[in-house]
């Protein structure tokens, strides 16, 4: 039996024109959150959901649009204001039925305390990166959000736009938002964000399809498609990269008349067979566990794309203990010429070189 919040969400989806296949089963687990399963066999090419873009929470659809655009905010920063604004409205928000399904924040290192960051990430490649994230995002809040609260034409509750709420919003956006299209930019896509990640095992594909566009053209494109919805991080793309991410037209139909895109609908399409009773997975990309933790707040056991990055200084120190200083300088110069930074590939290079040199000495002896 569906939980109370899932029943409320399903009623909200229906009111917003979101079409969801009866073959999808939503499972609400208190410890693990919501997952999506198959109630019957699903086949490649099945359209399991259609989501109107108007049901997505974006800068363009939010009631705070005028305030956000007047302040010149866009990208993740603007979307954060939109999300905080709609959350501040509680049941009066058009997205109340969706927002009640979300956690107050996702458990990304971004929202950990500095003590937790130091104790849990010390000695890892994320330690410095997370501290830099927290500093930059605090500056974003201080320079852009705080002045907006007190200068906005409508009355805003400062507690709904506090630094804590901003970091919480950024954690939700980092782990849940999608790039929708040129007009909307980034946005929260209800239903699409409920599918769990599995590396290299995408079952369902999210796409914006125009009336004359073939599904195969979108999925089979080796390099992806401009209409494909891509999971984004809030950390690896700063807000400066999102400038002018939407077209300043009077309406979405004006934009779509130029691009030929379907202005209304997103689709969720099966890209592989899923048996009845199995979970239906999305994939956020071929990412190692450090990237998954950084961007989405979790890691994956037996991740085939996991890597270990090792500081270049440590590699050089180890290499110079085995090889001559001249050889070390030559190798370092080569790495810099081909613009490679210190990582596991360098360790392998040193090990192979050492093994070959040792074997040569043994052969000569």
TrEMBL record:
Assigned GO CC terms: nucleus
Record's protein name: SET domain-containing protein
Record SUPFAM superfamilies: SET domain (SSF82199)
GO molecular function list: protein-lysine N-methyltransferase activity
Species for this entry: Gossypium barbadense
Region (Disordered): 213-258
Residue ranges with Acidic residues bias: 214-225
Skewed-composition ranges (Polar residues): 242-258
Highest taxon, organism lineage: Eukaryota
Segments forming domain SET: 16-285
């Amino acid at each position: 039996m569906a939980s109370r919040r899932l029943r409320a969400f399903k009623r909200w989806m229906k009111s917003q024109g979101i079409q969801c296949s009866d073959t999808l089963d939503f499972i609400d687990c208190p410890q693990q959150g919501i997952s999506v399963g198959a109630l019957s066999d699903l086949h490649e090419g099945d359209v399991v959901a259609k989501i109107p873009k108007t049901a997505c929470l974006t800068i363009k659809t939010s009631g705070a649009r005028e305030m956000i655009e007047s302040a010149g905010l866009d990208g993740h920063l603007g979307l954060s204001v939109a999300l905080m604004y709609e959350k501040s409205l509680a049941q009066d928000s058009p997205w109340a039925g969706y927002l009640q399904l979300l956690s107050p924040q996702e458990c990304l290192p971004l929202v950990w305390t500095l003590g937790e960051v130091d104790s849990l990430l010390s000695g890892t490649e994320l330690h410095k990166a997370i501290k830099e994230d927290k500093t930059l995002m605090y500056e974003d809040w201080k320079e852009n959000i705080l002045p907006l609260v007190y200068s906005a034409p409508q009355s805003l509750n400062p507690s709904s736009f506090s630094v804590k709420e901003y970091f919480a919003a950024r954690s939700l956006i980092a782990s849940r938002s999608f790039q929708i299209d040129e007009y909307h930019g980034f946005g929260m896509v209800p239903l699409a964000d409920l599918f769990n990640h599995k590396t290299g095992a995408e079952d369902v594909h999210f796409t914006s399809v125009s009336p004359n566009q073939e599904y195969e053209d979108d999925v089979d494109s080796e390099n992806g498609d401009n209409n494909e919805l891509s999971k984004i991080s809030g950390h690896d793309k700063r807000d400066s990269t999102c400038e002018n991410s939407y077209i300043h037209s009077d309406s979405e139909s004006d934009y779509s008349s130029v691009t030929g895109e379907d202005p209304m609908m997103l689709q969720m399409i099966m890209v592989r067979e899923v048996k009845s009773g199995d979970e239906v997975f999305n994939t956020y990309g071929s990412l190692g566990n450090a990237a998954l933790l950084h961007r989405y707040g979790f890691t994956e056991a037996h991740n085939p794309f996991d890597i270990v990055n090792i500081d270049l200084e440590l590699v050089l120190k180890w290499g110079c203990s085995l090889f001559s200083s001249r050889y070390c300088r030559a190798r370092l110069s080569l790495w810099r010429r081909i613009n490679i930074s210190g990582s596991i590939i360098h360790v392998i290079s040193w090990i192979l070189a050492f093994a070959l040199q040792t074997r040569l000495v043994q052969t000569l002896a």
